[in-house]
């Protein structure tokens, strides 16, 4: 799409701010210990799982005439499959006319679990695969994680009733493994593979193995661009994490648009209302389901997400690409700093196109 027309489209979407994607951080318990976890989850979480009744009360504040047909609730954590009431959760969400899906590490996902969740109306599923066996297990902090994830992917990849994908956190250890991962996922029948890089928050903040150099980042862009040009049964895309300059629309379907607070909200484990769960919850929380009407918060707050002039500071202050980027993804404004944590556009500029 022409950049000018896309900016008009983005402005209209921001003005309307129709809520159609809601994350629920339903637990912070997790059976793995991932190196890049932004929530610092553990098996013995400090926080109890949010009671289903509390979440449903918040969900019920959304008026029936403000529920688009593509509205989806996404269960995240932690590991949602640690909740013993997950099937009940799914059925209650479906009963209210919402679709639902889940983000999982795949450890507990077997044929029996697949059947039970499909019966509860699950319509979407995302599982992570973060390298070949040694790299994935290193990343996830538990031996056997790779084989469990592959088992899960093999089960849902050919399931026509759900929108399923695999995400890969690209880092120094698995960058060279991407061609082989592509082959494995294609052979399993997967239809969509989504790649992303990490920002320096949570456990990844001080882990040099998690962060790509500018050259490595551009090589990732080239890998995705090449795979998309080759075509094939599996679509390869880069995530929505940041503006990419010359790679816009070459590595994803549409131009960069951070929809946090525009179409996306989240209800966190302690009841706070925010946008994507990885956004700084202390700085950008908009209220709490335990003291506010969730939908009124959605309609009347989130100003920092919908008006981004505050982000025009630091390296963003004089950037010629500001109108296309608006300061990168909201998850990049993390912690006490008044400057964006990283700029993908700068990475692409630092490495000239091949042949120049």
Tell me what you see in this structure.
The chain has about 350 residues and is an alpha/beta fold. A ten-stranded mixed beta sheet has the order 7-6-5-4-3-2-1-8-9-10. The chain is built from 13 helices and ten strands. The radius of gyration is 20 Å and the shape is globular. The longest helix has 17 residues, at about 215-230. Helix 8 (about 215-230) packs across helix 13 (about 345-350).
Task: Give a quick precis of the structure.
The protein has 356 residues and is an alpha/beta fold.
* Radius of gyration (Å): 20 Å
How would you characterize the largest beta sheet? 10 strands, mixed
**Overall outline:** globular
- How far from one another are the termini? 26 Å
The share of residues in helices is 25-40%
Number of helices: 13
If you average the pLDDT, what whole number results?
Answer: 94
Architecture blueprint of SSEs:
Elements (H helix, E strand, L loop, with lengths): L2 H14 L4 E5 L26 H8 L12 E5 L9 H10 L3 E6 L6 H9 L2 E7 L4 H8 L4 H12 L6 E7 L8 H11 L3 E5 L17 H17 L4 E4 L25 E4 L4 E3 L6 H4 L2 E2 L5 H7 L2 H4 L15 H4 L18 H7 L6
Parallel strand pairs: 1-2, 1-8, 2-3, 3-4, 4-5, 5-6, 6-7
Antiparallel strand pairs: 8-9, 9-10
Q: Tags for this entry?
A:
alpha/beta, 356 residues, 13 helices
């Amino acid at each position: 799409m022409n950049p000018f027309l896309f900016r008009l489209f983005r402005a209209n979407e921001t003005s309307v701010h129709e809520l159609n994607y809601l994350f629920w951080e339903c637990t912070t318990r997790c059976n793995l210990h991932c190196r890049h976890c932004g929530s610092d989850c553990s098996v013995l979480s400090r926080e109890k799982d949010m009671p289903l009744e509390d979440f449903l009360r918040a969900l019920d504040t959304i008026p029936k005439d403000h529920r688009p047909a593509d509205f989806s609730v996404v269960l995240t954590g932690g590991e949602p499959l640690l909740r013993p009431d997950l099937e009940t959760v799914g059925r209650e969400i479906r009963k209210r006319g919402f679709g639902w899906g889940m983000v999982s590490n795949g450890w507990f996902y077997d044929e029996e679990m697949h059947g039970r969740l499909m019966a509860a109306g699950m319509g979407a599923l995302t599982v992570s695969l973060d390298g070949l066996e040694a790299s994935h297990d290193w990343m996830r902090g538990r031996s056997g994680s790779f084989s469990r994830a592959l088992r899960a992917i093999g089960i849902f990849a050919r399931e026509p009733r759900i929108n399923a994908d695999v995400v890969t956190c690209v880092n120094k250890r698995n960058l060279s493994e991407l061609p082989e991962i592509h082959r494995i996922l294609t052979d399993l029948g997967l239809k969509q593979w989504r790649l992303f890089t990490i920002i320096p928050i949570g456990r990844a903040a001080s882990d040099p193995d998690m962060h790509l150099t500018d050259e490595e980042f551009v090589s990732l862009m080239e890998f995705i661009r090449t795979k998309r040009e080759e075509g094939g049964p599996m679509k390869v895309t880069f995530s929505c994490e940041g503006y990419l300059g010359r790679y816009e629309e070459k590595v994803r379907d549409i131009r960069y648009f951070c929809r946090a607070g525009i179409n996306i909200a989240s209800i966190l484990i302690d009841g706070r209302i925010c946008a994507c769960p990885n956004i700084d919850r202390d700085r950008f929380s908009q209220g709490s389901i335990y003291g506010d009407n969730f939908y009124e918060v959605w309609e009347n707050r989130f100003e920092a997400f919908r008006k981004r002039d505050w982000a025009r500071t630091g390296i963003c202050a004089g950037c010629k690409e500001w109108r296309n980027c608006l300061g990168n993804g909201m998850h990049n404004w993390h912690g006490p700093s008044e400057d964006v944590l990283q700029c993908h556009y700068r990475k692409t500029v630092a490495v000239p196109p091949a042949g120049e």
